[in-house]
């Protein structure tokens, strides 16, 4: 891999955001736990130390041996990273007496500092810490403060070592991107040549070398990640890639047919498998969400394995794994690998004995989309909302029947089409309808009805880890509710979910 910035993670909720900001500057970077530092090479141009929920004053809080780093390579400590460095070299870090949380404005900015090139006095920054640096070690100079925080930023004399107590990676820091650019470009000397096109060329070359003349099989879901991964593999090895797209009977209305056509138009060698009945049989009478996930996972593997066995000499399994799935995050209680197990649908069954190829495993979701657009994958695939692997099964509360699936598909279709037609689709991160296991009284004409309730959910989010409900216009919701109740037999009530995550989740399950 070409030049890069190393981000050492001390467990901050913002670590991935730092990485995304650096990538937005067309500079490659990787996140590593603070206690598993890779060997430094000439390719590593600089180090960023993340924040942390811990206090440097706590016994057993994350520590770092700066001995082999300081002076050798540019370092930027953010928040905890800055406090740790200050404390270790004889400074004083103590609980702050005033609230150092939220917006603040930089004053006393050292305009000669390379870190603040083209930044303005009074620039708004985002603070988020309970401790503060009271005294700096000898040889450390203050380069910025705020009206209430004396040491907002420092530089070590004679070294390219910096510390800042605010978060340049969050958008509330108005010139944060500028600061990060100053660091990675002017201080670390990165050349900003890491673009989608460079990534595509390098990845295709690498895939060709790794796979050679072997055959690859890959499951497609209709989602962004698997579509982009398959396209890259296809560009590398063409017909030696066989894609399998399974209709599990739990997709959106018309999704199977439409997506299959898109894949064929994209030139992918794809086999469509109608396995609806198999899935409905496997799901019969199961109400528990985990039970449904297991039944779906098992059935998917059976169907997929059967198809894979039809391909003679297949050696590799392609997967659309992306960077957030593989980063080892640091938890407050010590390093641990946090992997969202339920999101790894269609994982590799041991018995298939295939080697895994994951061309997107260094990219964030926005990077995947950019690469997808550079590969000219159609917008109806690149711009689509995330959709859970188990599909409508986790949006039908209680047991699954083909009739319930058909009802929900129609309801969902009215909602999603409505969003598209009103130009709201792209303003929403994810949307869908949920079929509730309750009925309620209604009246139609002169008759009382006793029919189903559906909930509509539309959220804004960045990565699905946190989310807020979208304030869709009342007129829009009113129209969709009318359409659903008038057109869908068996539904007489529509409700809109106004819960954020946390404490709620996106899916109801
Ligand atoms: P929750 O409900 O945990 O969802 O707030 C967060 C994001 O993950 C998706 N999700 C899933 N995706 N298999 C998947 O592939 C699953 O079992 C699953 N459960 C939730 C959800 O749609 C949202 O985007």
Multimerization state = single chain
What radius of gyration results from the CA coordinates?
26 Å
Question: Roughly what is the average pLDDT, rounded to an integer?
Answer: 93
C-alpha geometry: globular
Number of alpha- plus pi-helical segments: 13
Question: Could you say what the CATH architecture of the largest domain is?
Answer: 3-Layer(aba) Sandwich
Unreliable stretches covering 5 or more consecutive residues: 333-346
Name the ligand types: xanthosine-5'-monophosphate
User: In CATH, what is the class of the largest domain?
Assistant: Alpha Beta
CATH topology of the largest domain: the name is: Rossmann fold
> Which strand-content bin applies to the residues?
25-35%
Proportion of residues in helical segments: 25-40%
- Amino-to-carboxy terminus distance: 41 Å
What is the number of strand segments?
Answer: 20
Structural domain tally: 3
Relevant CATH superfamily of the largest domain: HUPs
Q: How is the main sheet built?
A: 7 strands, mixed
Widest sheet: strand order? 2-1-3-4-9-8-7
Q: What structural class do you assign from the helix and strand content?
A: alpha/beta
Give a structural overview:
The protein is α/β, with parallel strands linked by helices and 509 residues long. It has three domains: 4-187, 3-Layer(aba) Sandwich (Rossmann fold); 196-382, Rossmann fold, CATH 3.40.50.620; 401-496, GMP Synthetase, Chain A, domain 3, CATH 3.30.300. It has helices at 15-24, 80-88, 176-187, 196-211, 224-237, 255-265, 276-283, 289-310, 323-326, 365-374, 379-382, 402-421, 474-487, and strands at residues 4-9, 28-33, 44-49, 75-78, 92-105, 124-135, 140-144, 153-156, 161-164, 215-220, 241-247, 270-274, 314-318, 330-331, 334-335, 355-357, 430-444, 447-461, 467-469, 491-496. The chain has a seven-stranded mixed sheet, with helices on both faces. It has a five-stranded parallel sheet with strand order 12-11-10-13-16, with helices on both faces. Strands 17, 18, 19 and 20 form a four-stranded mixed sheet that branches. Helix 4 (196-211) crosses helix 5 (224-237), helix 5 (224-237) packs across helix 10 (365-374) and helix 7 packs antiparallel against helix 8. It binds xanthosine-5'-monophosphate. Residues 293, 342-343, 345, 386, 388-390, 394, 430, 464, 501, 505-507 line the site of xanthosine-5'-monophosphate (XMP).
